[in-house]
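Supplementary Methods, section 5.1.

A reviewer requested that the exact input to the structure prediction be made available. We therefore reproduce it here, unchanged from the version used in the analyses.
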Amino acid sequence: MSASATNLRDLLSREIKTGELLRALIVVGPFVAAYFISRETALLNLGLIAVSLLIPALRLRLAPKTVAFHYLAILVTFAALFLAAPVKPLFVVLTALAGFLAVAVTRYGEHFRTLGNWVFIPAVYLACEVREGVSASEALRHAGVIVVASPIALALVCGIQMYDQRRRDGALTTSFEPPAAEWFLPAAATAMAVFAAAALVEIFDLAQGQWVMWSAASVVVGDLSASTDKLKQRAIGAFVGVPLGFIAGIALPESRVGYALAVLAATLTLTSFSRYIVGFGLRCFFIALAASFAGGASGIAEERVANVIAGGAFGILAVLVTEIVWQRVIRKARTLE
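The structure derived from this sequence is encoded token-by-token as follows.
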């Protein structure tokens, strides 16, 4: 084997988490196959629920019972946001509340942040996605298909967990690390960022607004330095991945098969890469490619990049504001002592 081939193999082994990739393919692949057979686009969205259940299950080694509670939390949050969507002020408030709760649960254990994130992300994304460009009746039908067929996603993830449990001799998570010492500040910052992002989306009726809200919550990961670094990674991934996906799509004809495979690939990037910037960049690439296959790539590069940057900016501002306010509160408390 040549040195270049060896180096490539080593690089791929470092970047790609093969075990998680295979498991994600097992839980997402059946929905893509079902889409090929039925042409029901709602089935592709079930892949996001499946991978959202799988990521915490694998990383935290959750018992099937805990996975089932996670599943119910996703469905309840999705249903609340979906039903609230026609009333824009209510949708904005509930989305901000969902962002707050996604972080506030760390009051009961640090590991709950992972679970909270993977309730918020699929619920917000699907609540926006199923209403994008369709009538209210079609959106309701789409949501109904997701809810009715979603137990299949739960069953697939629980099956993988039971298989892994046997291989690990039953080692499962029974606690979620110590409670976070400072949970309120990041929870408040997330709520502020998501509220501003959701308000922007609703006021200006932005297409694919879930990317703005998702990005706003995503960058709130700690202090200002950590949040800024996260935004830089997302910005680089969007600036590189989206245009490359758009360019690749120009040379390819519209294709239902290509669209489904690109959506599958984008979903798999949520869990398959060691470095966040690589996974996010490839996710942007495949989403832009999917839009090209669907014949809707016009303006996709500008739209995706703008949404990522706008949402991230809200997140950074929210972190900055909460840190300034908190420091003032501390100083005032000290003067009163």
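The first helix runs from residue 3 to 15. These observations are discussed further in the main text.
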